[in-house]
Design goal:
alpha/beta; 8-stranded mixed beta sheet; 8 helices; 12 strands
Length: about 230
């Protein structure tokens, strides 16, 4: 089985809204609904875990109820950090799907433009590797600076890549390293594949999608809104 984990526990403070960004409405639909629909409709996704805070579960349940898909969908509690939320999601996969799960595909609710093709690419490549991460090349020249004022060193842009979600993992090895890690180690992780890399799993990168950006700032939300409106001919 291939199980999706959608992370929806973020508060979205950088976007300047009291409502978390993934629950804001764009063209009549909450942001989270765009990626949820893609995952629920995907033929290679057998079930779904949504990781969110308790006070948003009913909201997400109403969204899911409006879809025609009939896959098993469960909820896990959001953690202290993103990786802690992932761990909670993995434990819920273990509880609900037991030893039937082969691959987990972890995605951010704030990346609404994920394509079915990218999900497929992640799953297919995960048959060869422990961990798969889509990436796009860094567009800007990157400078290293310890104090944020003076340049310490230059980094070769040709060797730099920006990671995206969804990220796919062979379930048992990925769960195993979480169980072996300390809470401090888990909460120091910034990206899902970072955890796999640090603990020695076999990781690979695949071509990502520039449209699969994460909504982090008000400008990102405007860009997403414009794309949706353009696609809908508004």
């Amino acid at each position: 089985m291939n199980i999706g984990i959608v992370l929806s526990g973020g508060s979205g403070t950088r976007i300047g809204s009291e409502i978390p960004k993934q629950y804001l409405t764009v063209s009549g639909k909450p942001v989270i609904s765009y990626c949820l629909e893609t995952f629920i409709d995907h033929k290679k996704i057998d079930g779904l875990i949504v990781v969110c805070t308790q006070d948003w579960i009913n909201f997400v349940e109403e969204i899911i109820g409006g879809f025609s898909g009939s896959k098993p969908i469960y909820f896990a509690d959001a953690g202290i950090t993103r990786q802690d939320s992932i761990y909670n999601g993995l434990l819920k996969v273990e509880e609900k799907f037991q030893d039937k799960t082969e691959i987990v595909i972890i995605h951010d609710a704030a990346r609404p433009l994920v394509s079915a093709g990218l999900i497929t690419d992640c799953i297919d490549k995960c048959n060869e590797y422990d961990a798969v991460m889509p990436v796009v090349p860094a567009k800007d020249t990157i400078y290293r600076s310890a104090d944020g004022k003076s340049v310490d060193s230059l980094l070769d842009r040709k060797e730099l890549w920006c990671g995206q979600a969804p990220e796919a993992f062979r379930f048992n090895p990925y769960l195993k390293i979480h169980k072996a890690a300390t809470p401090e180690q888990i909460n120091s992780i910034n990206g899902s594949t970072e955890m796999a890399f640090r603990f020695g799993l076999n990781c690979t990168m695949i071509k990502g999608d520039p449209l699969n950006f994460k909504i982090t700032t008000p400008e990102d939300l405007i860009s997403f809104t414009n794309i949706v409106c353009q696609n809908e001919g508004i």
